[in-house]
């Protein structure tokens, strides 16, 4: 019986996708790094006797079937599903995604031992799932796999998304043995999911804030997911006149870089002026991007989040108006396009309450925690009862190499996840 701890599972992949230039990890979906993480997961699941398959949307399913099930397909309907993702942001941390996948494998080890000893009698099948393109780092739309599964994105639009090299998602999917015609809402697969539970590294300072820490500055090791802030991504394309850096007088320029730079400052000011808003420009791409070339276009990506979706929309509208005024003053034009949007998610309160009871067999306290980070669990919440567990991240930093989880907390996360799953099995 496999008894790998979550820490040894994570140690086994610690060198996969290291980004020497950026630091941290770059494991874009269907990159060599992420493909080798998929192989790692499939090998770990297979050695545990789980039955592994990949569905038409590229989601991997590792099935722990009911003992003695005569009709396996029927016995999988309404299963208990856990899991997360293996892709990362550029230069991301080691835990965002993989902690949930590794913890699911380690929690299976705990539960399988309980079943073998007779301490666990299951009423339903369980699956560990791995969702592709959760970060949207390659094709621009976050949670692409779960959005395709639920129909939250039109498959035609998804298939035509392009990565930085111009490859379409359809081309990359085909190159990875998938049939583009198979993508889209998948009722039969959705029918397999009775509940979905995702364990994830905490990505903010929540558990380290004064609200939860004691005099020694220590807070709870775990939290239960409460809400996910509504969030979206927009692209602002500033178009000016490309020209020669040496022959074009300063007074004779329509330089989109100037408009984009002022817009970045306006985004910061607008976000800071709105309580509990998060407004970010993390990506800026001048075209053509030559040192001695005045850009002809600058693409700027905007990430805006707020608990109230109407305020998110108002902020984007405000920023769009500012961008139009700034562009006009620089003799440029600007085009706003929405890349993706997710409404604020309130996790199933009954399930959150049940999770809070189960995790207390491992930790004394696990507060309900809202998060500003999106997750596949947030997308699936529109279809099935969904819950999340967060594991303390002492750095309070994520989407960066400093993201961190202490071994003991990771182990507590596995035990709590095992108890949560056992109570739902
Ligand atoms: O962007 C997010 O919140 C998530 O990490 N994809
Ligand atoms: Mn994540
Ligand atoms: Mn992330
Ligand atoms: Mn020249």
TrEMBL record:
Coiled coil location: none
Signal peptide: none
Nucleotide-binding is among the record's keywords: no
Molecular function as annotated in GO: hydrolase activity, acting on carbon-nitrogen (but not peptide) bonds, in linear amidines; metal ion binding; N-carbamoyl-L-amino-acid hydrolase activity
EC number of the protein: 3.5.1.87
Cofactor annotation: Zn(2+)
Name under which the protein is recorded: N-carbamoyl-L-amino-acid hydrolase
Residue numbers binding Zn(2+) 2: 96, 135, 399
